[in-house]
Amino acid sequence: MICELSLQEGSGGTVTQSVVNRLLALGVFSEESIQSVAAWLHYGGESVFLQDANSLIMKTDDLVQVISCIRETFPSVHKITSYCRSRTAVGKTDEELRRLHDAGLTCIHVGIESGYDPLLRFMNKGVTAADHVEGGRRLKGAGLSLCVYVMPGLGGIRWSSEHAEETARVINLINPDHVRLRTLQVVAGSPLYTMMQNGTFQTLAEEGIVREIGIFIEHLDGIETTIVSDHVLNLLEEVTGKLPGDKSKLLATIDRFLAMSPEERIIFRLGRRKGIYRKLDDLAERGTFLWLKSIVDQYASDPDHLEQDLKRIMQDFI
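The structure assignment produced for this chain is given below.
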């Protein structure tokens, strides 16, 4: 309908502001839905993400029909992505996964979170490290691009090293195309929050999470994958690069942060959480550094209060 209206308006199928205004005047769609679709078409309409859920849980025939319909209705689409659980991938046959790929599904995102079985059981993940490996390998074997999510900090103080090392082992066995880091943030009211409150689960400090990420990257070996630290909860956004070539660079960034003075680390953390800093070199801007330092100095008599305020800022990111 939007493209047809664009042709009627003399815009040649292009989504212009006049086309959007005409759609709003018709009152057929809500303003939000029109803006979303119009923006998608305006920027090429080349990529589709199937819901915000595990779409592969659908019957394969039904999902093939959905994907085929997208391809036929929007010829401009060349990338169709979905989330998927490892157990769901294991439950599909190789033939089913190939059918989905052949229909037009191109990329799968899987929340692995950890490859350490005791931690997966503790978190009631409902999956094992072996499931992660089998599911990931079969998705890649079907020709699908695979992006997995790892959660630094999930093991807390108790299982930090095991979480890092065993997760790296699982990643090595899968060799996904992308590994995205998603630092743990415990949400108030969740079961894990209750465990944190009663001491059953002890969270890592941010420096500890940075060290854990270093252990994880150090144990990645024999794979070609891209590490991406593209979330606001991640302290070091610049820990991003292609393995194996960028491994030394990623570890050097982590070492650089850990080698800074305690004052520099807390100033960087504050700047990052306020959305001012994005990379360690940003510390070199003297005016901003001194302004952030003046804020930190106000907490000198009560550093725990600063930690609490930083945690509150991070809660707002969720």
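Interim note for the steering committee: The mean pLDDT is 92. Strands lie at 47-54, 79-83, 107-113, 145-150, 178-181, 226-228, 241-242.
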